[in-house]
Design a protein that fits this description.
CATH topology of the largest domain: D-Maltodextrin-Binding Protein, domain 2
Distance between the termini: 71 Å
Helix content: 40-55%
CATH architecture of the largest domain: 3-Layer(aba) Sandwich
Shape: elongated
CATH superfamily of the largest domain: Periplasmic binding protein-like II
Structural class: alpha/beta
Radius of gyration: 23 Å
CATH class of the largest domain: Alpha Beta
Bound molecules: glutamine
């Protein structure tokens, strides 16, 4: 009798292990790896309770739910995210990534989901008002970004030097502490940061950028050109769904941002 009970318990355990294995392996089948920035509020950042959150984080979750796919979000920094995409360590990037003509040669983008442009910010107590105030000074830029590209494009004309940083908070810190007199950052991100009291102020607008030959460009989700077509198609379909059902506007307003389409 005792032995019979033992056998029954063993058999039951074996069945349970098999059921679990089957369930787990099924889940792992289509898990995409998506890379993102570390701190680029309100698009991705860690909130006061320690949760990784933001507009990009929420729209990816909403799109995945809408399209029924699973993913792992790796928060590694903008430049690192693009490198991960290029080396095949990530399937896609969502990181407030500007859709530029240059990038479109290498990556396939989803439709644009947020309008943006790059601007210059200085310390709140600085008297620098425009690019001409940068002469002979040091400027902070974030590696691999459209903001860095703008700084590089203006550097010779306005004779300044550039110091590069891996993330936005380090770049702002350099301006706040005076190791750099200005930085170049995306307008919606720096506006959010200034409103949160990051100690900086914006001194140039879209017109000032356009006068120097820089266009504003919106954000999109990127995959390598010709690869991950299924993921891009799902993102694209899900994006259209969350735009038309109002979820997109709801997500943006959660972060105090108006969705303008
Ligand atoms: N929008 C900018 C770019 O694509 C910056 C993105 C970021 O820093 N996360 O280069």
């Amino acid at each position: 009798m005792k032995n019979l009970k033992k056998i029954a318990v063993l058999a039951l355990s074996a069945v349970m292990v098999l059921v679990c294995l089957a369930g787990c392996s099924k889940k792992e089948e289509a898990e995409y790896i998506i890379a993102t920035d570390t701190t680029f509020a309100p698009f991705e950042f860690t909130d006061e309770s320690g949760n990784f959150t933001g507009i990009d984080v929420d729209i990816l979750a909403a799109i995945a739910q809408d399209q029924g796919f699973t993913y792992k979000l790796n928060s590694i920094g903008f430049d690192a995210a693009v490198t991960a995409l290029e080396s095949g360590q990530a399937d896609g990037v969502i990181a407030g990534m500007s859709i530029t003509e240059e990038r479109q040669k290498k990556y396939d983008f989803s439709d644009a989901y947020f309008q943006s442009y790059q601007c210059m910010a200085v310390a709140a107590d600085s008297d620098i008002k425009d690019f001409s105030g940068l002469k002979g000074k040091n400027v902070a830029a974030k590696k691999g970004t459209a903001g860095a590209e703008m700084a590089e494009g203006l550097k010779d004309k306005y004779s300044f030097k550039i110091t590069y940083f891996d993330d936005s908070p380090m770049m702002y810190e350099a301006v706040k502490t005076g190791t750099a007199v200005a930085c170049f950052e995306d307008a919606p991100v720096i506006a959010y940061g200034c409103a949160q009291g990051n100690g900086l102020k914006v001194v140039t607008d879209l017109k000032a950028a356009e006068a120097e030959g820089f266009k504003g460009s919106p954000y999109g989700f990127a995959v390598m050109k010709g690869e991950n077509t299924e993921l891009l198609a799902k993102f694209q379909a899900g994006l259209q769904n969350i735009i038309s059902n109002g979820k997109m506007a709801e997500i943006c307003s959660k972060y105090g941002v108006t969705y303008e389409g």
